[in-house]
């Protein structure tokens, strides 16, 4: 219960407890004073009665010793006891009565039977005297009028039996003086207690203020500190008591908070500077990456354009070769017809042979040029494959950077979680960087997929070009064979007359060979179309790669 009270009320409770305790002590002291006064009066009356008892005993002994007659001894004893006085102005007296309540000695009521007498309150005091005496004596309290016309006053009487003669010897005193003394002591002790209480209250108030006021000031300062106000001075630090120690501890706490705030401010500046440096590093990395990829993509695009142009020329050459082969076939057919009519036109046969030789020479030249273009295309395919490998290396580098960025973002998230409230902003940035790293990884995977498609197309085109080269080489061999055959025909023109059937077989062979060449040229035409299509696809994929890289760089810059 006291734990819920403030210090001021606690001190007041302590003061009230002291007041109650002082009141109890004051009451006990007053009770002891009253008891002592009453005991003093009782002892006084008892000693006076004992004196009268000794007088009666003295005369009883004289009567027993036959020094005096018993009646005379009683008379003298009663007379002497009746003359005894004490108290203020010798107004207090002794009396003697018998067991029937008749006063034997009394200043005013000698011989009066007072057995049925009552005091002011109706108390049968004489009967009480007789009863006490019968029991060996004792005190009786009753009320009696001391002065005529005044109210009755409490009176204490002590009675003692003198059994030898059947007497009851007693005396009484008024106790109003006891109450007067008691009231004087009551006023004295009450005034003293009141003075002590007032003085204690004043001291308690000063002590309470000396404790409560500085504690309230320290508490108010602590409230300001909890709100972040560390500019106020700490009160009561000069005190040497517990409050001063508390204020000094609060001063140390305030200085610690100031240092902590300073460290937090430095941490925020450092965090901001780190973020700026990181952002600059990302921008620089993005620029370097963009330059590297632009250079590589530009080279690949240029090679793709060259490959497309070469494929177009190859397609045109193959198309021309096909036309020439068709012409050769047609001429061979004409030659076959001429052979049938060789007997009539040997000179025309020679001219036809010359024409065939010229056409075959042209076909050989075109075939050689096609072979050269195909070789160049193969070389370009090799360069394109190497460039694709370089792009794949750059993509792997980007994937490593994305993984490191993701790891840095994870570490930043952990550090932000450790920083608590101060790291929330940094945690958001770390989350964005982590998301960017994830997007980067997805972009690089897409780039890797595109590069794989490019490498696959390049490998296929290279294989096709090698096949075209083989076919063109076969065409060259066939053209050489045709040229040799034509040469033989020209040499044997003089023998045509005798070898028409053999010439016919030769022209048939030429027709067959030209048909094979036609098929080979058609196959070369198809391969040239595939090469042209692959070059276009490579060019498109290069554009897609550049778009993906530009999007990635833009995301890094906007982070």
Task: Explain what you see.
By secondary structure, the protein is an alpha+beta fold. It has two domains: 199 residues, PAS domain (Beta-Lactamase, 2-Layer Sandwich), CATH 3.30.450; 287 residues, Helix Hairpins (Orthogonal Bundle). Strands 1, 2, 3, 4, 5 and 6 form a six-stranded antiparallel beta sheet that branches. β1 and β2 form a beta hairpin. α5 packs antiparallel against α6, α5 packs antiparallel against α8 and α7 packs antiparallel against α8. The longest helix has 99 residues.
What gyration radius follows from the Cα positions, in whole Å? 73 Å
Helicity level: over 70%
- Could you report the average pLDDT, rounded to the nearest whole number? 77
The 3D shape can be described as rod-shaped
Number of E-state strands: 6
Question: Per DSSP, what share of the residues sits in E-state strands of 2 or more residues?
Answer: 5-15%
Helical/strand content category: alpha+beta
- Which segments are poorly predicted (pLDDT under 50) over 5 or more consecutive residues? none
Number of domains: 2
């Amino acid at each position: 219960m006291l734990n819920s009270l403030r210090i001021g009320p606690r001190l007041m409770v302590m003061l009230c407890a002291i007041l109650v305790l002082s009141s109890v002590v004051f009451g006990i002291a007053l009770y002891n004073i009253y008891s002592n006064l009453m005991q003093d009066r009782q002892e006084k009356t008892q000693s006076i009665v004992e004196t009268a008892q000794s007088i009666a005993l003295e005369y009883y002994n004289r009567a027993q010793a036959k020094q005096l007659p018993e009646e005379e001894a009683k008379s003298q004893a009663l007379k002497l006891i009746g003359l005894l006085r004490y108290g203020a102005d010798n107004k207090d007296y002794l009396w003697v009565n018998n067991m029937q309540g008749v006063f034997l000695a009394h200043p005013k009521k000698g011989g009066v039977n007072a057995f049925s007498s009552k005091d002011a309150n109706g108390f049968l005091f004489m009967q009480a005297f007789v009863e006490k005496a019968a029991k060996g004596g004792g005190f009786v309290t009753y009320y009696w009028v001391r002065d005529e016309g005044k109210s009755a006053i409490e009176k204490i009487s002590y009675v003692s039996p003198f059994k030898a003669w059947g007497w009851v010897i007693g005396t009484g005193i008024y106790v109003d003086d006891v109450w007067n003394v008691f009231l004087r002591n009551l006023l004295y002790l009450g005034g003293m207690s009141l003075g002590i209480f007032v003085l204690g209250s004043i001291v308690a108030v000063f002590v309470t203020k000396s404790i409560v006021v500085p504690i309230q000031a320290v508490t108010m300062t602590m409230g300001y500190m909890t709100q972040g106000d560390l500019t106020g001075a700490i009160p009561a630090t000069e005190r040497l008591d517990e409050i001063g120690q508390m204020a000094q501890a609060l001063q140390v706490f305030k200085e610690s908070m100031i240092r902590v705030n300073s460290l937090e401010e430095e941490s925020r500046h450092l965090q901001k500077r780190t973020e700026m440096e990181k952002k600059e590093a990302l921008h620089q990395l993005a620029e370097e990456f963009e330059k590297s990829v632009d250079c590589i993509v530009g080279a690949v695009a240029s090679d793709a354009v060259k490959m497309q142009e070469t494929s177009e020329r190859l397609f045109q050459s193959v198309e021309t070769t096909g036309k020439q082969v068709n012409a050769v076939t047609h001429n061979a057919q004409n030659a076959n017809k001429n052979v049938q009519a060789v007997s009539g036109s040997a000179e025309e046969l020679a001219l036809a042979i010359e024409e065939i030789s010229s056409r075959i020479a042209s076909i050989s030249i075109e075939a050689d040029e096609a072979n050269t273009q195909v070789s160049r295309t193969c070389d370009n395919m090799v360069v394109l494959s190497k460039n694709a490998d370089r792009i794949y290396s750059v993509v792997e580098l980007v994937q490593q950077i994305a993984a490191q960025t993701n790891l840095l973002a994870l570490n930043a998230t952990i550090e932000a979680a450790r920083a608590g409230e101060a790291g929330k902003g940094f945690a958001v940035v770390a989350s964005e960087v982590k998301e960017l790293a994830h997007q980067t990884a997805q972009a690089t995977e897409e780039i890797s997929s595109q590069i794989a498609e490019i490498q696959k197309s390049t490998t296929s085109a290279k294989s096709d070009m090698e096949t075209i080269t083989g076919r063109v080489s076969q065409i060259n061999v066939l053209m050489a064979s045709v040229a040799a055959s034509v040469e033989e025909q020209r040499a044997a023109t003089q023998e045509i007359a005798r070898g028409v059937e053999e010439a016919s077989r030769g022209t048939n062979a030429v027709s067959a060979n030209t048909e094979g060449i036609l098929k080979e040229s058609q196959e070369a035409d198809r391969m040239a179309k595939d090469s042209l299509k692959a070059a276009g696809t490579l060019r498109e994929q290069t554009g897609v790669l550049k778009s993906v890289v530009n999007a990635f760089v833009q995301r890094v810059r906007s982070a």
